[in-house]
Amino acid sequence: DSSYITGSTNLLTGAVLEYIANADGTIENVNGSGIINKSGTETLTFDVGENTFSGEANVNAGTMNVIGNSQSSIDFDMNVNDGMLVYNAKAGSAITIDDKLTFGSGANNATIELNNSTYTYTNEIANALGNNVIFKDSTLLLGATGYNSNYTLDNTNLNLQDNILQTYTFN
Hints:
171 residues, mainly beta, eight-stranded parallel beta sheet, five-stranded parallel beta sheet
């Protein structure tokens, strides 16, 4: 395991941290509203902790493992162009999936895995067609009627919460 520089990092608006993971690594104590670009084949773990990072992370290769802190929403904008994003929610959280979580417009066979929460999913993740969405050890509350990605529910309860909807389509 190789860890990012110890201490605190403040990514100002417009600042970009290019993280090329050729060995598994960890970053933490990151604040600000800049951009983290993750490439390289190995896993980068980003422990959000009590920090105030509100920028954007782009997964361009390999795996980015995010340990979230928010109790109600995805912590910051996350875009998966290639590879895999694993989001581990804070214990006891109930998260609404919104436009903070996307696949890049050219993504194909990329993966987003959402773990350990109750997720409310009212609209499909942008550019999901041809990509993979995994819900693991969670409860999933559905509110839309059409889903075009490859979905996997692993030890996850599915709640079709809208009584007036008659058909859910998973293509």
